[in-house]
Each structure stands twice: as C-alpha cells, then as structure tokens.
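Recap from last week: sequence in, structure out.
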Amino acid sequence: DPLYDLILPLDWNWPEARPGKGSAIFIHQWRRPGHPTAGCLAFARRDLLFIARHAAPGSRVIIPG
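Predicted structure tokens:
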C-alpha cells in the first residue's frame, strides 16, 4: 500500500507505553482528501515529502484544537 511507503513515527505513548492510550501515531500519505485515518496524521504526498525533509529529531508536532 503506497500510503505507508514513507512514514514518520511520532513518540506517542513511548517509550513507557500505558495500556489503553493507543499504540502509535504516524504521519503518512493520505488516501484522498477528507478520507479518515485510524488516528494518524495524513498528508498529500508532496506535503509529506516536505515534512520529511524538514523534520529533525526533537521536532514538535502541534495539533491546534
């Protein structure tokens, strides 16, 4: 599945995993605009490549609510 050719794992619930808090959150390619994920963050391939080129260890993902 090309959606997962490039993934960026986030450190959600790691390294000390807590039961019931979910196992992982990834940044990956979206299937199509508006299509839901299973709790991950999904982007157009062009945007995902931009994020991958500019992310570095210690980069923060902020999701405004």
